[in-house]
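Q: For a teaching handout, I want to show students what a protein-ligand complex looks like in token form. Below are the inputs, and the small molecule is fe (ii) ion. Please produce the holo structure.
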Amino acid sequence: MSIDYGQKIPNNVDLASDKVLQRALEHWQPEYLKWWQEMGPDDSQAMDVYLRTAVSVEPSGWAHFEHVKMPDYRWGIFLTPLEGERRINFGDHKGEPAWQEVPGEHRANLRRLIVTQGDTEPASVEQQRHLGLTAPSLYDLRNLFQVNVEEGRHLWAMVYLLHKYFGRDGREEAETLLERRSGDVDNPRILGAFNEKTPDWLSFFMFTYFTDRDGKYQLCALAESGFDPLARTTRFMLTEEAHHMFVGESGVGRIVQRTAEAMVKHRTESPDQLRALGVIDLPTIQRYLNFHFSVTIDLFGADESSNAATFYSTGLKGRFEEGKRSDDHQLRGQTYKVLAVSNGQLVEREVPMLNALNEVLRDDYIKDSVGGVNRWNKVIEKAGIPFRLVTPHKAFHRNIGALAGAKVSPDGRVISEAEWNANVDHWLPSGSDRAFVASLMGRVVEPGQFANWIAPPMMGINRQPVNFDYVRFN
Ligand SMILES: [Fe+2]
Ligand SMILES: [Fe+2]
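A: Here is the structure, written as tokens, with fe (ii) ion included.
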């Protein structure tokens, strides 16, 4: 399953054998590049960046690294190989062969799932568009661009499915994916978190830790799909996603490390003193964490959703690690607990599990996202500092589902509007927090040099040294 780079659009799907599809995608390609020039990384056109490119879809050694001029990156279409005889492993169609074509009755729902996933990919590139101007090192600049080009490739992955399997409406959807803009009042991206700003590198690392991890969970659920081309497309996307979350986890970890070093060296916990030393105090990091965690868990959707039930029962979208679960994979008659506010208290309600599958996926996500936070805490603990970072209660700062708009503190108490207003600046980044973090941002371009507010990484990319010239500005 090696990838053919001799073609205009690199692919491992034998695109050349389907001339109509090939022509349609070659028509979309310049539109994509136009979008990249306009909305992709600011001022990056002349840079040579040490990027990895997929050369095969085999789990071992699929990546090749070299300096690439940014707009010359070879975006392509890569699916994991067909598994002979794959069967649908959940829902009403459980046990039937996986579909190689879109079943007519599920067409609209499948298209909606693919468009919603596809829309997040260019959205994050737009959100991160200006960050290159303030990268804390060449190493970080390279990681940002790696994430950006791969999100661009994820858009290609979804557009391929739309073009190949959804005819005219698929082609129209592919066009609108290049027309919506993150944060645009008139034509925003589909999901809330993808219309927020990512104005600084603390936000970027929180985004890649928390929000790219939402991507992982959505992709894992789609990788179970009865629609085999979707399952195979998302599986390969997942191999790329792992790096994005690494960038986030290690990025926040390095910021925490730098702050902890300053706290020890100067024997202070005072945010003002630490800020004067040019590092980001831990309470500010906690507030950014609260923000990104809460807007990200909204992405899983309403806690009770008949769409979620339909997507599952019809075999379109499974659960995280569906195959590893030991239940009947149909879930009829089973229940799950969701939260609501009643009489000033958070209460659990049992609802049909099929309708609660968004909540099931959200809870799986929450369990996973706590892991990295604990690793950040290890850094703080090692420095002998009593402070601990913590993910807020899942009812905190929610805007979707039964908890939307409820006033709940990070530790899970239902509170009054007045208490919320009095504390919100301790719980979520305030204007002055954001202004302070922004004041630290400035581009560092010497190989091996790092901005003062972030520690260098333990090692470089692809076994290169940390002081490697990951980006050449020309
Ligand atoms: Fe992605
Ligand atoms: Fe990602």
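A: Two things your students might notice: The two ends are 36 Å apart (CA to CA). The mean pLDDT is 96.
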